[in-house]
Prior knowledge:
The protein is mostly helical. It folds into 2 domains: 37-166, Aminohydrolase, alpha-helical knob region (Penicillin amidase (Acylase) alpha subunit, N-terminal domain, Orthogonal Bundle); 174-275, no CATH class. The protein is 41% helix and 8% strand. It has a 3-stranded antiparallel sheet. The protein has a two-stranded antiparallel ribbon with strand order 1-2. The longest helix is centred in the N-terminal third of the chain and has 21 residues, at 79-99. It is elongated and about 80 Å long. 26% of the residues are buried.
Amino acid sequence: MITRDWALPYRADRIVEILEGQAAHSVGDSQDLQRDILSTPARELLPLMLRATPTSDRGHQAAKLLSEWDFEMRRERPEPLLYTAWLRQIVIALANDELGEALLADYAGLVFRPDPRFVETLLTRHRHWCDDIGTPNEETCEERLAVALDRALDEITAVLGPDIEAWRWANPHRATFTHRVFTHVPVLRWLADMSIESDGGDHTVNRGTTQRDRSPDHFSHTDGSGFRAVYDLSDLDNSQFMIATGQSGNFVSPHYRDLLRRWRDVRYIRIAGVRDEVLNRDIGRLFLMPTAQ
């Protein structure tokens, strides 16, 4: 492939880290691996980000939560939301004065899906980027980090209110599946579209990638695994599978959305590979009977 926009290595590095820590690897281990939601860039970056000098009580509260975080992007926790919003505001704070709003807007992906390596570089080897060239004073990285934290808190508070402990990553981070046709029909949209709170982030093995633009729902879950499989090479009939939403494409079918929660929770079903067993375990059959011309 010829490209300049390669996927960052964090997910692959995390997989290697887990595999190297195991003497043997089972079907259950593979399932756990696909469930993994630890953010390795958060683990690397937060020690640098937490050098900030918060200027408010809420800033200190947010910093304390993040300092005790286990780096897992769990939907029921506030820390993933704090980290993601803060990281984006750091990029804006450090790059906006050098690049300008127009150029920064052209590279919206730099802000809304920031490269953690870029932020790490600015906070370590190129700390002069922390100075705001639009002011006569020379600002430190710690000061700019604190400003970015306050802006992130302002952004979240405007939507979820001031109680940080009540915030949840799941509030804005939802996986939405829109029907290609009926999403444009107001009444049918509510029947055909699906949405569910989800775990994960941009760089977790169980991927929960967010928007790469300035849309109001830029924390929503837009990309992830639509199909999962764990193959048991010692017994292929014990292989495990899951797809997003459901088996049927008919939105009035009971099987249109019946796998959605299982998919979100990274659970699996076994599909027999022998015809007789499939027929014995089926819950229904669909016969397509062409008419004679």
